[in-house]
Design goal:
The protein has about 240 residues and is mainly α. The chain has helices spanning about 75-85, 100-115, 120-140, 140-160, 175-185, 190-200, 210-235, and strands at about 5-15, 20-25, 35, 40-45, 55-60, 65. The strands form three sheets. The protein has a two-stranded antiparallel ribbon with strand order 1-2. A two-stranded antiparallel ribbon has the order 3-4. Strand 5 (about 55-60) and strand 6 (about 65) form a beta hairpin. The structure holds zinc ion.
């Protein structure tokens, strides 16, 4: 048995240059979950089989990097930006085989850049920043993790304001988004914002069937309030 049997080759058509290339994906249902953090960051028994490593597709020909959530087709304007800013500087790199955390991180950074150049929905940019933050969490690189969680919060807040959070992510409901913005704010130390968003999530209690999220919002709201109160006390004391 091959060590990487859980991977398969998927043919992808580049959203930019239409070149067909092969990238690895994780077979659905083959990976056992070990644990999950409150912001949905998931740890698998075999972290090498974490599907997050393989979410981004990198076109070896033009360098355009994207996920299945990207809107297509790209506008003529967007293609022009990609040509000048990415393809003109691109030297072929291999992203189509087994990925380490470092390789996955490089792929996400390319995709974030491509998402900005082609004006993707806030929800798409937010999802990329969040997952890149998780990759740094797996590496225990706290500073880089927080840097990308901060960017994710900004994009998710915009996604909430502009109501584009269902684009490309059918699982994302209003209550889940509010909860997630709360939790990410808590993690970056913005406790007052965290409390605000958890309260907004809790206020949807009677209007959602996602009672698990309401429960989590209650728990994380208490946690954020406790930490915030402690922090205020220390400030007064110092
Ligand atoms: Zn391409």
């Amino acid at each position: 048995m091959n060590k990487f049997d859980f991977l398969y080759d998927k043919s992808i058509i580049c959203l930019n240059c239409e070149h067909t290339f092969v990238t690895k994906k994780v077979r659905q249902g083959t990976q056992a979950v070990a644990s999950r953090d409150a912001d949905f960051c998931t740890y698998y028994k075999e972290q090498a089989g974490n599907p997050v490593l393989y979410t981004v597709c990198v076109c070896p020909r033009c360098g355009f990097s994207f996920t299945e959530q990207f809107s297509s087709p790209l506008s003529a304007q967007a293609r022009k930006h990609v040509q000048v800013k990415i393809t003109a500087k691109w030297t072929a790199k291999e992203f189509g085989s087994v990925r380490s955390l470092r390789t996955a991180i490089a792929a996400y950074k390319l995709a974030i850049y491509a998402s900005q150049l082609t004006d993707q929905p806030y929800s798409v940019k937010a999802g990329l920043c969040l997952r890149l933050g998780w990759l740094y969490r797996y590496l225990k690189d706290n500073a880089e993790e927080l840097r990308f969680l901060r960017l994710a919060v900004e994009q998710y807040e915009q996604s909430y304001v502009h109501s584009d959070y269902r684009v490309g992510d059918k699982e994302m409901s209003e209550v889940r988004l509010l909860y997630l913005i709360g939790e990410l704010n808590r993690r970056i130390g913005e406790f007052d914002q965290a409390i605000r968003y958890f309260s907004k999530a809790i206020s949807l209690k009677g209007q959602t069937i996602e009672t698990g999220i309401i429960q989590m919002a209650h728990e994380q709201w208490s946690l954020a309030r406790e930490t915030y109160a402690q922090q205020q006390k220390q400030r007064v004391g110092s």
